[in-house]
Design brief:
This protein is an alpha/beta fold. Helices cover about 50% and strands about 20% of the residues. It has eleven helices and twelve strands. The strands form three sheets. Strands 2-1-3-4-5 form a five-stranded parallel beta sheet, with helices on both faces. A five-stranded mixed beta sheet has the order 7-9-10-12-11. The N terminus is likely disordered.
Length: about 375
């Protein structure tokens, strides 16, 4: 095993000495640092010691095969670009190697110019791959720190503004006319909407970071649904909406986080209440088998247009028209979807305009 010092390290693993020597000479002329190994075992050792930028691997070798090497290196050295050296009779194997993580293949016999072209292209691909990973890491870092920024730099001023408005109302007393009070009321509602939007967004970030759901226990979904409907029931009765709950007490337990699941049901049942007209109904039912527990929430409300259904779980997407009087953050259903994902469950929806909507929440037993 030998090499000369330069910028990029290239490892050539082949049991044929003429191939090794030919590759070494061709690549060294282009200024590369070339390491050679005569079999898979020696090649693996050289890769682990030198961390080459690129490795040429012969598929047909005694001992550790080229295919096994590609598999090992793709896991241990993900930044190393692998190129398969193969005979024309082994093209099928080369394609299989590409599926395992190889970047390209070089059929024998090949010229010095061919290996130089493949090397240049492979190293450029490596640079782009590393750059993409760094950008992704920076993105994650910024997202993590943005949570802190939002928490401290946005919530605090909103709380202060809210206090100022309360103070203004106390100081002014009866001096404010109806128009002024109406303006202040609208300001308070907008501040509250903004605070809820920030909290929803922070919740989504915490779900993604794995810090939101920390207390999973055996739960009875009948209890969860009962708690979720406690606050919604008076509103539905006031609006003349029939709320039918057909959930038996002895349904199979699931493992989950109680508070987050209550919020999921509050969100979905609350939406049904908002968009179901007076005289309509909301029904909650259950069915299960030996693998799943399904909870269905159906309403006789306005329904969702068919073309908008695929997007309702996207962040900030609102299916209703601009004239819709129910203003939300556009994060409620996104939250529900993320919570169900975190529980290994599924949330599905079907709807027909003018006839209503049905959400089905599937939990693993």
């Amino acid at each position: 095993m030998s090499y000369t010092q330069d910028r990029h390290k290239i490892l050539v693993i082949d049991d044929e000495e003429p191939i090794r020597d030919g590759c070494k000479q061709a690549l060294e002329k282009s200024g590369y640092n070339v390491i050679t190994a005569k079999d898979g075992q020696e090649g693996l050792k050289a890769a682990r010691e030198n961390h080459p930028d690129m490795v040429f691997i012969d598929l047909k070798m005694p001992g550790i095969s080229g295919m096994d090497l590609i598999d090992i290196l793709s896991k241990e050295l993900p930044d190393t670009i692998s190129v398969v050296i193969t005979g024309f009779a082994s093209i099928v194997s080369a394609v299989e190697a590409l599926k395992k993580g190889a970047y390209d293949y070089l059929p024998k016999p090949f010229s010095p110019d061919q290996i130089r072209v493949v090397t240049k292209r492979g190293l450029e691909h490596r640079d782009l791959k590393i750059e993409a990973r760094k950008l992704n890491e920076e993105k994650k870092f910024m997202e993590k720190n943005f949570i802190t920024f939002v928490s401290h730099e946005m919530r605090s001023p909103l709380a202060v503004i809210q206090q100022y408005i309360e103070s203004l109302k106390l100081i002014a007393g009866d001096k404010l006319d109806e128009n002024a009070l109406s303006i202040i009321d609208r300001c308070e509602k907008r501040i509250q909407n903004l605070k809820e939007l920030i909290e929803h967004w922070l919740d989504l970030r915490r779900i993604e970071s794995g810090t939101f759901i920390t207390d999973k226990k055996n739960l009875n979904l009948a209890d969860i649904i009962r708690k979720a409907t406690e606050d919604i029931l008076p509103l539905s009765q006031k609006r003349g909406i029939s709320l039918k709950i057909n959930i038996p007490e002895n349904i199979p337990e699931i493992v989950g986080d109680k508070e987050s699941l209550i919020r999921v049901f509050v969100n979905i049942i609350g939406n049904a209440t908002k968009y179901t007209p007076s005289g309509g109904s909301i029904s909650i039912s259950e069915k299960h088998n030996d693998r799943y527990v399904d909870i269905s929430i159906s309403d006789t409300g306005a329904g969702i247009p068919k073309e908008k259904l695929p997007f309702i779980f996207d962040a900030f997407y609102r299916a209703k028209d601009k004239e819709d009087k129910h203003r939300g953050s556009g994060l409620g259903l996104t939250f529900c979807k993320r919570i169900m994902d975190a529980h290994g469950g599924i949330i599905d929806v079907s709807s027909e305009e003018g006839k209503g909507t049905t959400f089905v929440l599937r939990f693993i037993r």
